[in-house]
Amino acid sequence: MYDSELTKKTQDLTNELIKMNSGSGIPLARIHDLREVLRFHEYRYYILSEPLIADMEYDQLYKALEKLEKENPGAVRPDSPTQRVAKGLTKEFPTVQHLVPMLSLDNSYNADDLLDFDRKVRELSGLDQVDYCVEPKFDGASISLIYEKDLFARGATRGDGVEGDEISTNIRQIRTIPLSAEFSRYGLQQVEIRGEVLINKKQFKKFNEQLLSQGEDPKANPRNMAAGTLRLKDPAEVSRRNLEAFVYHISYYTMTEGAGIPELLTTHSGSLQLLWELGFRSPEQEKKVFPGIEDVIRYVQEFESGRDDLPYEIDGMVIKVNAIPLQEKLGMTSHHPRWAIAYKFKARQASSRLLNVEFQVGRTGAVTPVAKLEPVAVGGVTVSSISVHNEEYIREKDLRIGDAVLIERAGDVIPQIVKSLTELRNGTERPIVFPQHCPVCNSKLFKEEEEAVWRCTNIECPAQVVERIIHFVSKDAMDIRGFGEANVRKFYEMGLLKDIPSVYTLDFDKLTGLEGFGQKSIDNLRKAIEGSRKQPLHRLIYALGIRFVGETTAKTLAHAVNHLLDFREFSLEQLQQLEDVGPKVGGSIFQFFSNPDNIQMLAELEKAGLPFRNEKKDLSGTGSLAGQTFLFTGTLPTLKRSEAEAMAEEMGGQILSGVSAKLNYLVVGEDAGSKLEKAKKINTVRIITEEEFLQLLGKK
Ligand code: IVH
């Protein structure tokens, strides 16, 4: 079915839903359409990264399907988009046999190795020149998938290559893996596919932060996190971690009677195309076929230099003989195929020596041990210090001062100590002793039960005060440029800053003559401080550094009140009614607003003219445009853009910064450019003129 037909169907279904708001819902006869439409939008979103509808619309359609299936259990199909959701915990992962053993690949590290590989392939095949298909070597956890009669039937880990663990329920949580695919279109009946499960760099960072905030150990790299996630017993948690998968090999298939082998399956690049056409994420766009090894060498080297720009980790490239009959002729050794080789990129691991551990006190008083290392280059940067998180982590990794340690740095991910090389010890290594007193203010450290972190609870501890100010002025908080970490420390030591409110009473005269502080930087700093008085309330809330309150929670909080100090009246229960606020976050907010010192600080900040009121609260959610999003482009005939934006906001509308599926209205004027072009491709965006906009506001 064509995209345009599916888009049309989406609109019909959405309209029906709107009409039926009063009750009944979509008729059962449309259940097939509903599933088809949902699958199509999952494909647009997860495989192509080009969504055509807003998340909310998807959710509405999804809920409609859920309702229909609940009312008609007989109509549920195993490949329905609702069937990814699993209830309860997995008890065990039974051992299963792969249809074909999962071999690993031989490795190469430089051009000479690849020339060798090519020479052997040519010798064995008796050919002068061989076509190679080259694709990324995904750095994740390998899996095997079986489809039977077009339905996903089983997913397994690699295990020892012959047998692995059956993890079908967890595989169903990966939205880039289709629950059904029309293999029958090619006469294929049973198919076994190989692939790699990944976690992208952004998600990796996010989940490591979460693990740390729960007092758990972070994972050393995305590969470990992907592998660990596949073995979680709770499929809901697997789903939350947004795993992704690439598939790159068809290892086995049977045909329906009478069908001939499809042309696409006679080459490796063809099989990647076949998988792509069936809705899988294969390296269809990244793959390249070359007539000989020289071009291959150029391509792998070129790919290596762009490695850090990819959203996920790759650790090399894989070079495969493209013709499948030739692959079969070449066969395999006991360990790996003779028709493929991995080209490994430069290692991101290096070894160094742990010289010492220093203890740093953070903004919340948490004491973090930081390993000081002999400087070593890893993946293009020099590393000389690495956080080792907490006492438990040090104990588990058995780290000692003087140890040789293995370090890994993956892309833009923070470096980690993978392990200490215990076999190299000579007996002079010393254990790491955790302090009992704060290294800065010397007050006794405390550790809450079930927490991994020791804390300095002296709220006046200079280390904490400085860190709180640094956070307050930082880019995502009040964004006071010209301060920076180093200046905050310097000013604090000089007595020019003593707490957060003192930012607004800074004596600029005392800055004149300071090294590196000309009149220009003083003026800039003054302007930046001035500008921060106009920041929206949610930034101020985030800047206060309340434990567990990140940017998202800060926005939720800002929407919940008319005035920041209203939170003094909130009970713990009321706080927990806010989105994403549970007992832990709620408790921390409650504590913050119950502390008289904090209230005193807030009073000083209000006096300094900071934004305590939520100006828009009374409007948003009530105006006639509530919930609608707008973007203006081109020159409007009568209104200035800022005027038009203010008018939309006044009626409860929201202004977006770019065209996306979240946009409801694009208001176009003369010379509208790329935004208009982009909006035309998303058929849920309504493109209107200024006049129509004014009509919408009821002004015409
Ligand atoms: S081909 C017989 N292609 O690397 C086919 N493997 O050391 C063998 N891997 O176990 C695999 N990306 O887990 C192949 N594009 C790719 C790959 C890839 C990652 C992994 C796979 C394999 C390991 C080989």
Alpha carbon gap, first and last residue: 43 Å
- The average pLDDT is 90
Put simply, the count of helices is 23
Instruction: Give the helix proportion (percent range).
Output: 25-40%
Structure report:
- The protein has 700 residues and is of the alpha+beta class.
- It is 35% helix and 20% strand.
- The two termini are 43 Å apart.
- Bound molecules: 2-(butylsulfanyl)adenosine.
- 2-(butylsulfanyl)adenosine (IVH) is lined by residues 103-105, 135, 137-138, 142, 194, 196, 248-249, 318, 337, 340, 342.
- The site of 2-(butylsulfanyl)adenosine has 15 residues, from strand 3, strand 7, strand 8 and strand 11.
Descriptive keywords:
700 residues; five-stranded mixed β-sheet; globular; 24 strands; 35% helix; alpha+beta
How are the SSEs placed, and which strands pair?
Blueprint: H1 3-19, H2 31-47, H3 55-71, E1 95-97, E2 107-108, H4 111-125, E3 131-138, E4 141-148, E5 151-157, E6 163-165, H5 168-171, E7 188-198, H6 201-213, H7 222-230, H8 235-240, E8 244-255, H9 268-277, E9 288-291, H10 293-305, E10 314-321, H11 324-330, E11 340-344, E12 349-361, E13 367-378, E14 381-387, H12 391-397, E15 400-401, E16 404-408, E17 416-420, E18 430-431, E19 445-447, E20 454-456, H13 462-473, H14 484-493, H15 519-532, H16 537-543, H17 551-560, H18 572-576, H19 583-594, H20 596-607, E21 629-633, H21 641-650, E22 654-655, E23 665-668, H22 674-681, E24 686-688, H23 690-696
Parallel strand pairs: 2-11, 21-22, 21-23, 23-24
Antiparallel strand pairs: 1-6, 3-9, 3-10, 4-5, 4-7, 7-8, 10-11, 12-13, 12-16, 13-14, 15-18, 16-17, 19-20
Helix pairs in contact: 1-2, 2-3, 13-14, 16-17
